[in-house]
Amino acid sequence: MDIPAADIQRIVDRYLRSEASASMVVMELVQLTEDTAAIARALPMLAGEPARLRELAGHLAENEAGCRTIVRMIRQRLDAPEVAGDAEEGIARSRKLFDASVAQSEESSVALYSLGSAELLAAATDEVIGVLEDWGVLGPRRDALEIGCGIGRLMVPLCSRVRSVVGTDVSSGMIAAATRRLEGCSNASVQLTTGRDLSEFGSASMDLVYSVDTFPYLVLSGQALVERHFREVRRVLRPEGDFVLFNYAYGRSREDANDEVLAHAHGVELQVIRADESPFRMWNGIGWLLRRG
Ligand SMILES: C[S@@+](CC[C@H](N)C(=O)[O-])C[C@H]1O[C@@H](n2cnc3c(N)ncnc32)[C@H](O)[C@@H]1O
Questions:
Q1: pTM to 2 decimal places
Q2: Could you tell me if residue 241 is inside a domain?
């Protein structure tokens, strides 16, 4: 594939300006080129501080095997979910996509920017947990629910910071991986869900509902599913309970995504405590904190 150097330079410039982490930039370069050797050849030829370009090349070299797995995942279209005709089709697609994806690499299946590395994923996970702590939503008397828990990487560190945590997911491959990872966490459990709603959970049973990089798949399945989940989140939250949403949609402008989240929040009478924030260094996730009054 012949990739214009200008496209590579544009992505790398975000690293050089410290606007994106090395992992995010390497992931984007892999998505653009689908060729790790071509990236390694291109990097030394780019404009920019040579030491910073060498850092990026080093990051690629250290994670080359994981990047090659990502190329295989991209070629199977596992990184590019499409808009579905309706909710049922969208849920079925997500299930298939994530079953296939977790079979290739547990780390990359939940965060492509981990480049398949357990260490990079752990560092990114620590950042998310740090933000949840900063936002004041954790505590030993809080019961938490994760919508779309994947391999349970967030639930593992969370189980010592809340009274209980339960994760749901539509993918049985993800649930199997999460079950393994959560073996030592007696206050954590996972449930395979239909993906349609939160009917497994009682009204006013949770102090925290959080969802990391899962709503984009609901959005691809149509607004009816998104609206139903906002109603369901409101229903399962106790008074003063929090809903943390990290990433709402892919391929929307920030302004549009924020407008949609705020409209959904107002529709179900959730208070907006934080909106449209970018609190991470490693990951480009955008966050909202909504609260039931
Ligand atoms: C990108 S992964 C993120 C996993 C996890 N939140 C994390 O950050 O490690 C998205 C997850 O959402 C799950 N998912 C997609 N649609 C869902 C739905 N309607 N209900 C529950 N889980 C869903 C997928 O199976 C997948 O495990």
A1: 0.96
A2: yes
